[in-house]
Specification:
Elements lengths: L1 H8 L3 E10 L12 E5 L2 E4 L2 E11 L4 E6 L9 E9 L8 E10 L8 H11 L9 E7 L18 H13 L2 E2 H4 L5 H4 L15 E5 L6 E5 L11 E5 L31 H16 L9 H22 L15 H22 L6 H7 L4 H14 L6 H43 L5 H4 L11 E2 L6 E2 L2 H15 L16 H12 L11 H9 L14 H6 L2 H17 L8 E8 L10 E7 L1 H21 L15 H18 L2 E8 L10 H9 L4 H10 L3 E7 L2 E2 L3 E3 L10 H19 L5 E3 L2 H4 L12 E3 L1 E4 L2 E6 L2 H15 L13 E6 L8 E4 L6 E4 L5 E2 L2 E2 L3 H14 L12 H22 L4 H19 L24 H17 L4 H17 L20 H4 L2 H11 L4 E4 L3 H4 L5 H5 L6 H12 L5 H4 L22 H7 L18 H18 L11 E9 L3 E7 L4 E4 L7 H22 L9 E5 L2 H7 L16 H13 L3 E5 L9 H15 L6 E2 L10 E4 L10 H16 L6 H5 ...
Parallel strand pairs: 7-8, 15-18, 31-34, 33-36, 34-35
Antiparallel strand pairs: 1-4, 2-4, 3-4, 5-6, 6-7, 8-10, 9-10, 11-12, 13-14, 15-16, 17-24, 17-25, 18-19, 18-20, 21-22, 23-24, 26-27, 28-29, 30-37, 31-32, 32-33
Helix pairs in contact: 2-3, 6-7, 8-9, 8-10, 8-11, 9-10, 17-18, 19-29, 20-21, 20-22, 25-26, 25-27, 26-28, 27-28, 28-31, 28-42, 34-36, 37-38, 38-40, 45-51, 48-49, 48-51
Length: about 1500
């Protein structure tokens, strides 16, 4: 309620006192983007906590300083801020400070009341730096005069006396005392719940301003509180910033207006006009190799793009003024008012000699209106009235016209506001952004006032603000003198190795493949509509140009790239300051993003793409560096650190970590850093020269709120927003990491499995070792070492490395140390780290965090997520609240998206994720005003399950848990994959008895209560999740068991090892054997051959035969037996079997060409999928039912065609020359996957649905280059060979559903090393669909008892509810009622009576003694008229639907359907809970399309009837309550 009141009132400053909540609750009311909030420290009182004060300052008010106290009398009771205002007096444009203080004073009975006011007076004293102007407001708990309280025995108490002494000592004025005619009956601010007749004025405002400069009054009402809000107006004249055109030195170029969505005419028109202008200017034939000609062409294109763009698209500018509220009725009344004014003016001009009224009435122009008005006045005026009385009567009649105009304008304004709200809601509900509903109304992105941090000087004049910005960033970009310190890293072994590798594989620059196709690809990279540079070239406009017109910018781009030509005009760059955090008035809290000229940016993008591809191919950036690594995410680094932390705990290793933050990132780095990186990695002088030349003498122009700032020039400045900057920064950091790692090989953390540490061997993971010394995320670095001395060595080398390049470490609060792993008994309070400025003391903290995320701490992440839910404001429109459909959209975009990002970095415990569902539902319930709580998971049910389809945080968390573990185990970078394998091996062999913890039936960690602490929380939560489901994460390549590369201890400790097998393994262990592979080195007795062909007779000893005894090693595998084969062997075996099946069913047609085949797939939903190949050999086959869909049918058909071609070539190889085979397919994706000429514009989709089949097809295409897949359109009806073959393949594929030749099994050999299995099938793609099913089943089971089983009966409905009624409609009252009915939360007499223990259970209409849902919607007679009206609507909509969808329906069946539809509102049972549980046979005989349309019509009419019946009940009950 409070947030809604503030959002509507939108004050410049708000103060909230005596905020209450639980001790661990998130900070309240940090929800509004319009305000910057200052919060006092919480006051813990028993089981609850009070935030004494929340002070909010509008974003357009500059804040100089913020104040909160951590101890003393003001602790938790005061929050203050110094704001800067411009006074419209002699101070001119200079800003002055004004201190605003929010207070929550102690009660008069408190012993701290006197000390509080004394401390507050001291805080406002000039000696403590308080400005001359100050204002305090809040709950003072004091009344000063008897008129401020209704207590007849009022007397000054301790609070009153202390507050009075405070005013005397500070010279302040109280607003209520200064107000004339202050009355407690009118101006009361506090009314306690226990004594509603006891009124008082406790919320007060006091200020050092003169009494006439501020006023106070009560305004509005906020329910659920015993205080009324007060409103204070400060009347000090404020001068607004001067932003007139004359005061702005240089206007920024106005951007072009974007075409409307769906407008397909403006783009071709723009391209055509540009072609015409270029041809008219004669720019195509000019030689851009000459500098003057280059500049001429560049300037000509700039002018053409600007001119044509403004003509075709227009420019962005201020919105047109809102039109007046004009309607025909208002127009007529305005004309009447005009004539009334003329008439009254004529009366006033009349004299004894001249009757102006008569002249006015007799004018021909005004005759009609004037006679009408004159007649009204004469009829209303008595004959004996004087002139003054007649004038007063005429004025009164005119006043009636004015009132009518005002009323009509208000009605028109309300009508237009409703139309605006309806337009916004429709846009949001149909998939638009909710930003239009939540856009801050007073947000500032640029400072209007600047404060010098060193001197505290305030700068408010526009010209001085511009100069301050220029001086600050010019000084920030100023580099220190070049340090001549030695650079030993330039000659280290790592540098020599990279340079030798570059000699064999050099970086090619300039590129040789720059053509029109690649230039268009560059224009598609990144943001399609970025802010343009100083020349105003819009990226999206270039993409619209024709090839002929785009050739000119391409010629200029080639000149820039090939000749390193960078003119002064091309090097102009805009700088846009963006606010980060902290005070708005401090420039150090801003970062500048650069916007270069379009051609310079395109050249830099081309250079970056080539450099990134080269770095990835050569491995120039270490895996421990997040930035610059393709496919590496921040969550991967956080997961790695969590596993390192828990692994150190398991192994008893103490690790010291240091978090280093580099100051200002790119801004302070010298250009020599990138040049040395190019030399270090052998990238080449050409690339170094290009990068150096394009950054030479760059002119920076800062954008400010007062216009563009005068340019300043810098040499070699690395720019934020420049495409190569992240890659260059990463290469610089990589240079340091490679050098330090080679120099200090033993300084780091070495991790192995627990088995390897104990000298045992179980699985190949025991051979792995991870050596981790440091990790980096752009300019943040974490150093790891096992001792403070080693930590200091590594830190000292980093400091030594960055000194020659001008980089500095931000020592202070940002640099912290943490001890992870085994905690020492007496940890030191801090560490002394070396730096170039002397030793630095770094505090040791308990929190281990990176990227604002606490590592392996889901509890704190849960608190962050709760704060997101609590702080999100759901707005109200001008005329109404948001409907439930729009509320769902707001929650999806403003809460769910943020929660997903946070949970991606650190998943939650599943119980906490379930609580988030309840918190979101409670937030929605509070906004909608529902009386009774709704089941927390109900809204997240899909529409087909009677929910609203809200994305569930619980489902997101489930998906992230399993996908995170699977991603770690399959990671493409070695350190992350090795660490995950070590963690898995420890969990499997160290804690779970050598059984997979992720596979059934051995899920969970047995016999060790510390397992949850010794492993990452995400992994243990994934184990808990797998326990409750049929899912498992299985290793798809377990060939190490078949190869014998498995320890005997591993097999011995497994539960599958019993009896003779156990004794045999012990015997081998006693003989000194460690693995199965070692046994083959002894004598072999071939009395029995093993079933595994990998091992063969080499392991067939008698005792090993006894070990296996009619079984094989398959019992030790997890999952299917075939996983014991390697992926290559499985693929070879599969393809060999399928070739054999093809040969066995061979029916060769010699009349057809052996070099042309056609393939096609067919699918019946997800029940059956088939593929077929036609040509000289026809084959059809089936896909396993659990993997059936149209995509797998098409892909297996393409795979089968390749196998058929292989069989045909093997029949008579001497007669079949090696010529190309053409395979025709109507599935374009097959051509994209197999086309060897892939370009960046057409990457092969290998990881989509059907990914394993895609990868199999891609592998076959790579091994058989003589095959070429060609796309042919399907079902064309043409008689050419390709179409006929495609039709034949289609017919054969459809027939294969009944009788296929064989089945192509699922290709497990193309799955990742670790994959998800649900007990029946491998789960392709992500876990989201499976997680949604799990959550839905869990919610339905949980709600079964509460809804008396009705939720289960709803699941049998054939058609889901119409989406429009619940997710798109802007009027969803009926949908809300359905939600409350289905969750048994609808307020009824029976439910209200049970809650309030009163006599409210009686119906207000028919006075039945028990009013429940059945009575309201079925038995109450008050709804008969509404039901009759609904019957007519149902009959009409049914008839119209049948007339469209079933025009040939007979009269008899039509009558039956209409009669059945008319009986729906009178049916017994739960028709109002969920209608249409059973359709009659005559409806079920209709086509499915007709059934669905009838179902949607009936559903809409019935739930609308439900809403009308309940609305009538609510209105009747409200009237009944008033009568009572």
């Amino acid at each position: 309620m409070v947030e809604e009141f503030i959002a509507k009132a939108l004050p410049s400053i708000y103060i909230l006192s005596e905020l209450k909540g639980k001790e661990n609750a998130p900070v309240p009311y940090a929800w509004n983007a319009d305000y910057r909030q200052v919060l006092s420290k919480p006051i813990v009182t028993g089981k609850s906590a009070k935030w004494g004060v929340a002070l909010g300052v509008a974003m357009n008010l500059p804040v100089a300083e913020e104040f909160t106290t951590l101890d003393g009398p003001l602790c938790g009771r005061m929050a203050a801020a110094d704001i800067i205002v411009r006074l419209g007096n002699s101070a001119g444009d200079e800003g002055v400070k004004m201190r605003v203080v929010g207070i929550y004073a102690p009660h008069s009975d408190s012993p701290d009341v006197k000390e509080f006011w004394i401390a507050l007076a001291d805080f406002l004293s000039p000696e403590k730096g308080c400005p001359e102007r100050w204002l305090i407001a809040g709950d003072t708990n004091a009344t000063l005069e008897p008129c401020e309280s209704t207590n007849p025995a009022w007397a000054p108490n301790a609070a009153c006396k202390a507050y009075s002494r405070f005013l005397q000592s500070t010279g302040g004025t109280d607003a209520w005392v200064n107000k004339e005619n202050c009355s407690v009956l009118q101006d009361w601010t506090h009314r306690p719940y226990q004594h509603p007749n006891s009124l008082s004025v406790l919320d007060r405002v006091a200020s050092s301003l003169p009494g006439e400069e501020f006023t106070v009054c009560t305004k509005g009402y906020v329910p659920r509180t015993d205080h009324r809000p007060i409103w204070c107006d400060i009347l000090t004249p404020v001068k607004l910033p001067n932003t007139t055109p004359g005061s702005i030195p240089r206007p920024s170029p106005r951007r072009l207006r974007l075409p409307k969505w769906g407008d397909k005419l403006q783009g071709p028109l723009y391209a055509k006009r540009v072609d015409e202008e270029i041809q008219a200017a004669g720019l195509e034939d000019l030689d851009v190799g000459i500098d003057e000609v280059f500049d001429k062409v560049y300037d000509g294109l700039t002018e053409i793009f600007r001119k044509v763009g403004e003509e075709v698209f227009g420019v962005r500018g201020p919105r047109p003024k809102k039109r007046k509220y004009i309607s025909p009725a208002i127009k007529r009344l305005d004309d009447d008012l005009y004539h009334w004014n003329c008439y009254i003016g004529a009366m006033k001009r009349s004299t004894a000699e001249h009757n102006a009224v008569e002249t006015f009435v007799n004018r021909v122009k005004n005759a009609k209106f004037a006679k009408k008005i004159h007649g009204k006045v004469q009829r209303a005026t008595p004959p004996t009235s004087s002139f003054e009385q007649a004038l007063a009567i005429a004025s009164g009649l005119r006043r009636l016209v004015c009132r009518a105009i005002t009323l009509l304008k208000q009605m028109e304004a309300a009508k237009q506001a409703a139309a605006r709200d309806e337009f916004k809601l429709k846009d949001v509900n149909r998939g638009g952004s909710v930003k239009r509903l939540l856009m801050p109304r007073c947000h500032m992105v640029q400072p209007t006032v600047v404060i010098d941090e060193a001197t505290g000087e305030i700068t408010a004049k526009p010209s001085e603000v511009r100069n301050k910005k220029r001086d600050y960033w010019s000084g920030l970009y100023e580099k220190e003198p070049l340090d001549d310190s030695p650079k030993p890293w330039m000659h280290c072994d790592a540098a020599k190795g990279f340079q030798e590798g570059a000699a064999a594989d050099p970086f090619i620059w300039p590129p040789t493949n720059l053509d029109l196709t690649r230039y268009r690809y560059i224009l598609t990279r990144g943001n399609r509509r970025p802010s343009p540079g100083p020349d105003g070239w819009e990226k999206w406009c270039l993409a619209l140009l024709s090839d002929r017109a785009l050739g000119l910018p391409l010629k200029l781009l080639k000149r820039i790239v090939n000749d390193n030509y960078h003119s002064k005009q091309l090097q102009q760059t805009f700088l846009l300051p963006l606010y980060k955090r902290g005070l708005f008035t401090s420039l150090s809290n801003y970062r500048c993003v650069a916007f270069s000229q379009r051609l310079e940016n395109d050249a830099a993008t081309l250079f970056t793409l080539d450099l990134q591809e080269y770095s990835e191919r050569r491995g120039l950036i270490p895996p421990e560096q997040t930035a610059g690594q393709k496919g590496l995410q921040l969550r991967d680094m956080l997961s790695l650190l969590a596993q390192v932390d828990t692994s150190c705990k398991r192994q008893g290793i103490t690790v010291y970590t240091l978090f280093r933050d580099q100051m200002k990132g790119f801004d302070m780095l010298r250009p020599e850093a990138a040049e040395d990186a190019y030399k270090f990695f052998g990238i080449g002088e050409a690339a170094s020269k290009f990068d150096r030349m394009r950054l030479a003498s760059t002119d920076f122009i800062i954008k400010s709120v007062y216009g563009l700032v005068r340019a300043f020039t810098k040499e070699g400045q690395m720019k934020q927003g420049d495409p190569p900057s992240p890659t260059k920064f990463s290469l610089t950091g990589a240079m340091a990491m490679f050098w330090i790692k080679g120099l200090l090989k033993d300084c780091g953390v070495k991790l192995r499995t627990l088995s390897a540490k104990a000298g045992l061997f179980h699985t190949p993971a025991d051979k792995l070792e991870l050596n981790l010394q440091s990790v980096a995320v752009m300019d943040d670095t974490i150093i790891l070492a096992t001792s403070p001395a080693d930590l200091g060595k590594v830190c000292g080398l980093f400091e030594k490395f960055q000194k020659p390049y001008g980089a500095k470490t931000g020592w202070g609060s940002k640099c912290t140390a943490t001890i992870i792993g085994k905690q020492p008994k007496r940890p030191p309070p801090g560490l002394v780290m070396p730096s170039e400025d002397g030793p630095q003391i770094v505090n040791i903290v308990k929190e281990f965090y990176l990227g604002r995320t606490w590592i392996n701490d889901p509890k704190k992440r849960f608190q962050d997520c709760l704060a997101v839910v609590a702080n999100c404001v759901i707005p109200a429109m001008e005329t109404r609240k948001l409907p439930i459909s729009s509320v769902i959209k707001v929650v999806e975009q403003k809460i769910i998206w943020v929660l997903r990002a946070k949970m991606t970095l650190q998943p939650l415990r599943q119980d906490d994720a379930d609580k988030l569902d309840g918190a979101i539902t409670s937030r929605i319930q509070k906004y909608m005003g529902w009386v009774y709580p709704v089941e927390g998971h109900f809204l997240s049910l899909p529409l087909k399950n009677q929910g609203f389809g809200l994305t569930s945080p619980a489902r997101i968390n489930q998906e992230l848990l399993l996908e995170g573990v699977r991603r770690d185990l399959n990671h493409h970078l070695a350190p992350y994959r090795i660490m995950a394998q070590i963690t898995y091996a420890d969990m499997e062999c160290g804690y779970n008895g050598c059984r997979s913890p992720f596979s059934a039936p051995y899920l969970g960690v047995h016999g060790n209560s510390n397992a949850a602490k010794d492993f990452p929380q995400a992994w243990t939560e994934a184990v808990k999740l797998l326990k409750t489901t049929n899912f498992s994460i299985q290793q798809t390549d377990q060939g190490f068991i078949g190869r014998g590369d498995v320890g005997l201890n591993h097999l011995l400790w497994s539960r599958e090892t019993k009896g003779d097998v156990q004794h045999a393994l012990k015997s081998f262990g006693d003989l000194g054997f460690k693995t199965l592979a070692e046994i083959s080195q002894g004598p072999v007795t071939p009395s029995r051959f093993l079933l595994i062909p990998h091992i063969g007779t080499a392991l067939a000893r008698n005792i090993l035969t006894k070990l296996l005894h009619n079984k094989s090693l398959y019992r030790f595998a997890t999952g299917e037996y075939e996983l014991l084969y390697s992926a290559d062997e499985r693929r070879a075996a599969f393809e060999h079997i399928y070739r054999s099946d093809i040969r066995a069913r061979m029916r060769l047609d010699s009349t057809k060409s052996q070099y042309v085949l056609a393939c096609d797939g067919s699918a019946y939903g997800t029940q059956s999928a088939t593929g077929a190949v036609v040509g000289p050999l026809n084959v059809c086959f089936r896909v396993p039912p659990q993997y059936s869909n149209s995509m797998t049918g098409e892909l297996t058909a393409a795979i089968g065609a390749a196998l058929v071609d292989d069989v045909l070539r093997s029949l008579k190889p001497e007669q079949l020359p090696q010529r190309q085979t053409t395979i025709l397919t109507d599935y374009l994706n097959v051509v994209r996957v197999t086309d060897g000429r892939e370009t960046p514009l057409r990457p092969a989709p290998l990881v989509a649905v059907g990914g394993p089949y895609n990868r199999w097809l891609h592998a076959i295409a790579g091994s058989q280059p003589h095959i070429r897949y060609v796309h042919v359109k399907a079902h064309t009806g043409c008689e050419d060979v390709a179409s006929e073959l495609n039709d034949a393949a289609d017919r054969l594929a459809k027939r294969a559903h009944a009788l296929p030749d064989f089945t192509i099994e699922y290709p497990t050999f193309t799955l990742p090393t670790w994959a998800l299995h649900d007990g029946k099938r491998w789960v392709e793609g992500t876990f989201s669909a499976a997680a949604e099913t799990l959550v839905t089943d869990h919610v339905l089971k949980k709600m079964k008892d509460k809804t008396r089983g009705t939720m289960n009966s709803m699941q049998n409905i054939r058609f889901p509810p119409p989406t429009y009624l619940y997710r798109i409609a802007t009027s969803t009252y009926a949908a809300q009622i359905q939600t409350l009915i289905r969750t048994h939360s609808l307020p009824t007499g029976a439910r209200d009576g049970a809650r309030l223990r009163g006599h409210l259970h009686t119906c207000a209409h028919c006075h039945e003694l028990w009013e429940d849902e059945a009575h309201i919607f079925e038995h109450c007679n008050a709804g008969l008229l509404l039901k009759m009206k609904a019957v007519e609507e149902i009959r009409t909509s049914t008839f119209n639907s049948l007339e469209i969808t079933a025009p040939n329906l007979g009269e008899g069946n039509l009558g039956k359907i209409l009669a059945w539809a008319a009986s729906l509102p009178y049916a017994s049972g739960y028709w109002w809970l969920y209608p249409l549980q059973m359709l009659p046979q005559v409806v079920r005989d209709l086509p499915e399309k007709s059934q669905k349309r009838l179902h949607n019509d009936w559903h809409r009419n019935l739930i609308q009837l439900t809403g009308r019946l309940y609305a009538q009940r609510s209105r009747g009950r409200a009237g009944w309550g008033k009568k009572a």
